[in-house]
């Protein structure tokens, strides 16, 4: 049977491990030159830091995933540097781009482990050179040994905010401040319900304590106002309001920002998997059961792309999705492993729900976003232009949902297809229309998942 | 934007060309690192007049770090390795 | 259910044709109710290529296209926006001798309808359009043609119609309609409407409406495979097509190049449609043969929508063959966007005056009633 696995992060690695054990040799691709995913991304050859320096408290898990990854490569049809840019469920075809050429691969079953990226709430100045996602700031350090600036401010909410700042400090970077938009009280309330994973909680508290001990400005319940600077020289300051309402300016030449992560679900969307709004995660997530089965025969999901759970959950859901696939195909399964993983996943889900409550997406900032803020950085569409599209006085009437607003304003129509601005755009529109963000909808996935060079199209006999 | 080389920088030096100027980088640098850890400052200008950009996600998703490599066309600087002799310009 | 709401004219389908009919009718003081199953302009009217073209049209369509052309130029005064309509010209290209012969043959047709065309080949063609690739042999240029933004037209027509007093209901799928005395009753899941006149502008689904009145037609779903590139410096001014129509492209002043060619897949029952990767790749290759500079450019998005295709690739426009008071304008076979503004004016005249000055020969639904009238696909 022809099985395709998209993604070689923790979910993809554990999925392929189970497939190979059952005697399946899958087509296995990842867009990056190596596996590991974003969380366990390895630097290129020539970098010498060990796992402990790269992955800190997660070093043991990273080493285990890497060892399995390297052992599996010869046992699969391993294709790194390969983008899956479209998928068809009928007929089952996976469309890839590798070395500048488009190719199509038939499959009987596929496990999509497409990961996640940062959730963003734009603010004035966020397109300036020197501003990156939290994930981007972390990758600069992990995969390139660099800080994103000489004096870096971290802004946002969620575990990655503290982890990235801590890693920067530890590597010798100057951390200007860590500004958390979530008030301390809100976090304390939500985290009080966190007995399920004390280790993860302890790690978070450890990072916060170390940052404070180093004398770094740490503020909670802040309101970001603007990133200041100019295009040629980049960032010069971060303008914010503290929890007491006082306006403040922080000198810095770089800002890493983000509010948790959202699934990269374009491929699942293109396959036809139904997508629903998960109010607790505050994310659009693809429909799947606890094992990763979607309503579409032959399409399985795992890892953060199937709903945010983090790296440990990704490993477990990867193995489960493979077990589900094997069971559905009548191949050898491991029932005991599945039972054990399902139990652990249930406990993890309770922990994740508490985390999601502790670090909410700052939807309230959308209503206050100044009109002149660039919301869609690809197409340079401002918040004001989007709001204008929601008013009946406009020349085309009011857009009642986000795809119609996209049609009017081009928001989310650029190279990134709204994966960066889409959530915030929906919040801005929801705030203007006075409706819930789930009703406003989400930007539909459209092929290609990422830009596809015209020269990638194979010259065919019928090209003329 | 000025990337700061902090750790793991003991790699062989390589040279490439950015915007017509010869620049130094290290083997294993991405184009984004090579340009922004040097004097490059930024990677592209928005097509719609709102100024320079220097990438955002650094993981190949946001498409805001596109530069043009001679002989290859537009690439994402954050996921493209800088190799000796590469000739690069802003997109 | 309560008594039906009374109107003078009911319209089923809120694409360009239906919305423009609502506008013209409301401006003449008629009480109009338009029922749209989704949002106005969601299918073919909103997802099409955006070509505003007279060149290459079948002689039966040309009178409507000529009338539409005049309306397109007046859009700002009619509806308060130009919908990004630009009169850049339409350049139809030939890649071999047979295609060139087709272009030459059409010059006569165009001349007889007052459509000015310019035939170009060799160095003259390349001097005028230096971005053309060596695969192109000849071209026919229609200076009056151009393109517009299809996402804007139906919503802008709808807004103007509402301002003029028309009632346009969205998310209001028609579940049933039937003759009622000397008029019609049309039902949605929650409401009923009655009027003396009924307009069928329901696109592909217009076939279902016609069938309700005993005149089924051999209509098929038509799902054009569309895509757009990242923005590149503006160079390709005219809207570009080819003889045979297997690829077409235009660049907007923002820089993006919109490319179409071939068909995706769709299910009108949902309704849902999507482009096909293989078709997208083929159109990309063909586009790069016309304009080699596109080689290094990336496609960033693709889409489709559902139109109705008739066997003779001509729309059904005109009075019903079975039911007085019913008028059709559907099955535009990929040609509807440019025609839309004029279709509304024509339907308005048919509904209120019983006649129109615009010739509709060859477009009547009656051509599908008599067995000998069916033109093979």
Automatic annotation (TrEMBL), chain A:
<dbReference type="Pfam" id="PF07992">
    <property type="entry name" value="Pyr_redox_2"/>
</dbReference>
<dbReference type="InterPro" id="IPR017224">
    <property type="entry name" value="Opine_Oxase_asu/HCN_bsu"/>
</dbReference>
<dbReference type="InterPro" id="IPR023753">
    <property type="entry name" value="FAD/NAD-binding_dom"/>
</dbReference>
<protein>
    <submittedName>
        <fullName>FAD/NAD(P)-binding oxidoreductase</fullName>
    </submittedName>
</protein>
<dbReference type="InterPro" id="IPR036188">
    <property type="entry name" value="FAD/NAD-bd_sf"/>
</dbReference>
<feature type="domain" description="FAD/NAD(P)-binding">
    <location>
        <begin position="1"/>
        <end position="318"/>
    </location>
</feature>
<keyword id="KW-0560">Oxidoreductase</keyword>
<feature type="domain" description="BFD-like [2Fe-2S]-binding">
    <location>
        <begin position="374"/>
        <end position="430"/>
    </location>
</feature>
<dbReference type="InterPro" id="IPR051691">
    <property type="entry name" value="Metab_Enz_Cyan_OpOx_G3PDH"/>
</dbReference>
<dbReference type="Pfam" id="PF04324">
    <property type="entry name" value="Fer2_BFD"/>
</dbReference>
<dbReference type="InterPro" id="IPR007419">
    <property type="entry name" value="BFD-like_2Fe2S-bd_dom"/>
</dbReference>
<dbReference type="InterPro" id="IPR041854">
    <property type="entry name" value="BFD-like_2Fe2S-bd_dom_sf"/>
</dbReference>
<dbReference type="GO" id="GO:0016491">
    <property type="term" value="F:oxidoreductase activity"/>
</dbReference>
From TrEMBL, chain B:
<dbReference type="InterPro" id="IPR042204">
    <property type="entry name" value="2Fe-2S-bd_N"/>
</dbReference>
<keyword id="KW-0560">Oxidoreductase</keyword>
<dbReference type="GO" id="GO:0051536">
    <property type="term" value="F:iron-sulfur cluster binding"/>
</dbReference>
<dbReference type="GO" id="GO:0016491">
    <property type="term" value="F:oxidoreductase activity"/>
</dbReference>
<protein>
    <submittedName>
        <fullName>(2Fe-2S)-binding protein</fullName>
    </submittedName>
</protein>
<dbReference type="InterPro" id="IPR036010">
    <property type="entry name" value="2Fe-2S_ferredoxin-like_sf"/>
</dbReference>
<dbReference type="Pfam" id="PF13510">
    <property type="entry name" value="Fer2_4"/>
</dbReference>
UniProtKB/TrEMBL annotation, chain C:
<dbReference type="InterPro" id="IPR036188">
    <property type="entry name" value="FAD/NAD-bd_sf"/>
</dbReference>
<dbReference type="InterPro" id="IPR006076">
    <property type="entry name" value="FAD-dep_OxRdtase"/>
</dbReference>
<dbReference type="GO" id="GO:0016491">
    <property type="term" value="F:oxidoreductase activity"/>
</dbReference>
<dbReference type="Pfam" id="PF01266">
    <property type="entry name" value="DAO"/>
</dbReference>
<dbReference type="GO" id="GO:0005737">
    <property type="term" value="C:cytoplasm"/>
</dbReference>
<keyword id="KW-0560">Oxidoreductase</keyword>
<protein>
    <submittedName>
        <fullName>FAD-binding oxidoreductase</fullName>
    </submittedName>
</protein>
<feature type="domain" description="FAD dependent oxidoreductase">
    <location>
        <begin position="8"/>
        <end position="350"/>
    </location>
</feature>
């Amino acid at each position: 049977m022809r099985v395709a696995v998209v993604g070689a992060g923790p979910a993809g690695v554990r999925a392929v491990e189970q497939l190979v054990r059952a005697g399946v040799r899958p087509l296995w691709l990842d867009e990056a030159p190596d596996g590991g995913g974003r969380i366990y991304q390895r630097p290129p050859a020539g970098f010498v830091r060990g796992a402990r320096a790269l992955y800190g408290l997660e070093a043991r898990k990273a080493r285990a995933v890497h060892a399995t990854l390297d052992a599996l490569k010869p046992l699969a049809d391993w294709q790194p540097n390969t983008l899956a840019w479209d998928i068809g469920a009928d007929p089952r075809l996976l469309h890839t781009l590798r070395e500048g050429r488009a190719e199509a691969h038939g499959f009987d079953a596929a496990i999509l482990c497409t990961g996640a990226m940062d959730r963003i709430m734009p603010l004035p100045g966020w397109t300036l050179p020197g501003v990156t996602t939290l994930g981007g700031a972390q990758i600069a350090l992990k995969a390139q040994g660099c800080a994103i600036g000489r004096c870096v401010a971290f802004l946002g909410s969620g575990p990655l905010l503290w982890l990235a700042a801590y890693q920067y400090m530890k590597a010798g970077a100057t951390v200007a401040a860590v500004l958390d938009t979530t008030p301390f009280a809100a976090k304390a309330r939500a985290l009080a319900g966190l007995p399920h994973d004390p280790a993860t909680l302890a790690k978070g508290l450890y990072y916060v304590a170390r940052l404070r001990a180093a004398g770094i400005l740490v503020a909670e319940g802040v309101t970001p106002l603007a990133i200041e600077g100019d295009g040629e020289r980049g960032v010069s300051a971060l303008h914010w309001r503290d929890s007491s309402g006082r306006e403040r300016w922080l000198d810095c030449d770089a800002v890493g920002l983000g509010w948790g992560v959202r699934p990269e679900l374009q491929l699942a969307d293109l396959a036809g998997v139904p997508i629903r709004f998960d109010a607790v995660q505050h994310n659009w997530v693809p429909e799947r059961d606890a094992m990763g089965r979607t309503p579409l025969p032959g399409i399985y999901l795992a890892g953060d792309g199937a709903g945010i759970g983090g790296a440990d959950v990704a490993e477990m859901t990867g193995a489960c999705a493979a077990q589900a696939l094997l069971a559905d195909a009548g191949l050898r399964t491991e029932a005991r492993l599945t039972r054990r993983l399902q139990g652990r996943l249930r406990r993890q889900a309770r922990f994740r729900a508490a985390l999601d409550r502790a670090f909410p997406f700052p939807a309230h900032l959308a209503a206050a976003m100044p009109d002149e803020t660039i919301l869609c950085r690809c197409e340079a569409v401002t918040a004001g232009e989007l709001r204008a599209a929601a008013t009946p006085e406009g020349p085309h009437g009011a857009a009642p949902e986000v795809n119609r607003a996209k049609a009017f304003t081009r928001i989310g129509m650029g190279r990134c297809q709204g994966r960066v601005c889409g959530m915030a755009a929906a919040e801005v529109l929801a705030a203007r229309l006075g409706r819930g963000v789930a009703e406003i909808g989400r930007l539909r996935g459209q092929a290609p998942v990422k830009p596809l060079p015209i020269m990638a199209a194979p010259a065919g006999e019928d090209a003329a | 934007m000025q990337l700061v080389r902090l750790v793991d920088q003991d790699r062989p030096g390589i040279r490439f060309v950015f915007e017509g100027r010869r620049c130094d980088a290290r083997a294993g640098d991405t184009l984004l690192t090579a340009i922004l850890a040097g004097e490059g400052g930024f990677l592209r200008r928005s097509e719609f007049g709102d100024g320079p950009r220097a990438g955002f996600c650094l993981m190949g998703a946001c498409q805001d770090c596109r530069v043009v490599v001679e002989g290859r066309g537009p690439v994402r600087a954050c996921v493209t390795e800088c190799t000796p002799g590469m000739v690069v310009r802003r997109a | 259910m309560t008594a039906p709401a009374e109107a003078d004219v009911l319209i089923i389908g809120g694409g360009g044709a239906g919305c423009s009919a609502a506008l013209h009718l409301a401006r003449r003081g008629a009480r109009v109710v338009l029922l749209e199953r989704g949002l106005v302009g969601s299918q073919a009217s909103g997802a099409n290529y955006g070509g505003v073209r007279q060149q290459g049209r079948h002689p039966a369509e040309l009178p409507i296209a000529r009338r539409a052309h005049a309306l397109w130029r007046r859009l700002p005064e009619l509806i308060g926006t130009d919908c990004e309509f630009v009169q850049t010209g339409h350049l139809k290209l030939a890649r071999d001798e047979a295609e060139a012969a087709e272009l030459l043959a059409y010059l006569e047709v165009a001349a007889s309808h007052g459509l000015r065309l310019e035939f170009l080949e060799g160095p003259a063609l390349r001097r005028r359009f230096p971005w053309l690739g060596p695969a192109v042999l000849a071209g026919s240029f229609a200076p009056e043609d151009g393109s517009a933004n299809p996402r804007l037209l139906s919503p802008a027509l709808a807004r103007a119609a509402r301002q003029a007093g028309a009632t346009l209901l969205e998310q209001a799928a028609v579940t049933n309609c039937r003759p009622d005395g000397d008029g019609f009753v049309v039902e949605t899941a929650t409401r009923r409407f009655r009027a003396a006149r009924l307009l069928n502008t329901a696109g592909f689904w217009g076939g279902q409406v016609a069938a309700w009145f005993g005149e089924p037609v051999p209509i098929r779903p038509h799902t054009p495979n569309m895509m757009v590139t990242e923005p590149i410096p503006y160079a390709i001014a005219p809207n570009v097509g080819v003889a045979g129509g297997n690829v077409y492209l235009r660049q907007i002043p923002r820089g993006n190049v919109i490319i179409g060619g071939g068909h995706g897949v769709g299910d009108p029952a949902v309704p849902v449609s999507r482009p096909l990767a293989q078709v997208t790749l083929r159109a990309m290759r063909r586009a790069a043969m016309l304009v080699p500079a596109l080689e290094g450019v990336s496609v960033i998005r693709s889409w489709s929508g559902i139109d109705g295709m008739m066997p003779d690739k001509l729309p059904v426009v005109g009075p019903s063959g079975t039911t007085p008071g019913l008028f059709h304008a559907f099955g535009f076979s990929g040609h509807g966007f440019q025609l839309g503004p004029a279709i509304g004016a024509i339907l308005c005249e048919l509904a209120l005056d019983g006649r129109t000055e615009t010739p509709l020969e060859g477009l009547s639904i009656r051509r599908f009633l008599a067995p000998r009238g069916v033109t093979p696909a």
